[in-house]
Amino acid sequence: MFSRIDECWFQGSLAVGFAALVTVWGRSFVLGGITRNSLWSSLEGVFPALLLRLLLAASMVSMSIYAFKPEWMNWSCVPLPTFVRLIGVPLEACGIFLLVWAHKSLGAHFCPTLQLKQEHILVTTGPYRWIRHPMYSSFVLLWVAYFLLSANWFIGLTGLLAEGIIIVARTPREEQMMVERFGGHYVQYTRRAGRFLPRWAFWERRTQKGCGDGRSSLE
Fold this sequence. Notes:
This protein is mainly alpha-helical. It has one domain (about 5-210): Four Helix Bundle (Hemerythrin (Met), subunit A). About 65% of the residues lie in helices and about 0% in strands. α1 (about 5-30) packs antiparallel against α6 (about 135-150), α3 (about 45-70) packs antiparallel against α7 and α5 packs antiparallel against α6 (about 135-150). It is elongated.
């Protein structure tokens, strides 16, 4: 087990990253206007939307508890070596940087749910130049970091399961919605920007090669 000083340091690191996540997301959420559509969209599907929100709430409440009363989360702690937990620091920093960059690039076009505003445009600047869903990538980085920093499987599992729902259930619907709005412009965009990693990533190249002509599955 870690000394009390070590654990306080990890608590502080997680708390700073968690506060940054809430601040960035909350600011964009408020600036975009809090309406019924910004809380839930029928395009998400009732069950995936409900499960996603329950998992995120469980993970975020658990992180809050860990930050102030870590002993209350001892039932789900994992004995990770200190050097492994320290990897969470740069991962957390990268996740926050990517999240801030994505939100800044989207500006007024940020939508927390599956919806497109009348004035919505296809944003291809900032991280969107290389990745179609950089915010989702940032969330994966952040929850891996939160798991390492807290050494708590419940915090990591609930957060990553929520991201799994986004990747499996939400992303395909979101991309179909973008195709319906922007048509060929979005299809062309998918050919040069990876879904969660840049196109030049090794696995993206292998996927393209396996598809024959390298065209998007959305076509």
